[in-house]
Write the structure tokens for this entry.
Amino acid sequence: MGVDAKNAADTGEDRDLTKCEIVSEVTVEMILNDLAHGRSRTKIAARYAYKDSDGELKPFEKWMVDEMFKDPALVGKTPFKGRIIPFTFKGSVDSPVKSLGNVGTIERTDVPEENTTPETPNANNGEEPTDGDFEAADTPQLEDGGTQTNDPIEVG
């Protein structure tokens, strides 16, 4: 590759610009959207073009994209490289999962509702128990056969 060929590749002057999006302003959101769609810096440069002061259509150059990625919101950002399942996958569980197209996530279709408060019968009709209200069945059994109490332990 000669010096002239390398310069032409860097500037993109031999590139077909008819399919490029012509922009006068590029926002961080536009670049983040491109990254979310898996576009690399090279593909981002190939996607956009601008008009210079003479009104001539020019392609984005590598250094221009590099300058955009110096913005604090874009530093270290890379294109999305997730793999998307192009079919519906049924696992070993009865609830099927489905592909959401190019979103990149899988969503369960039938998620059971959470039971946040289990219903337990209350022997005291909602009243606080007193010391005499407990029965032996309510006292937890310990491994050695004894019962757990809340009495203080004396260390001698």
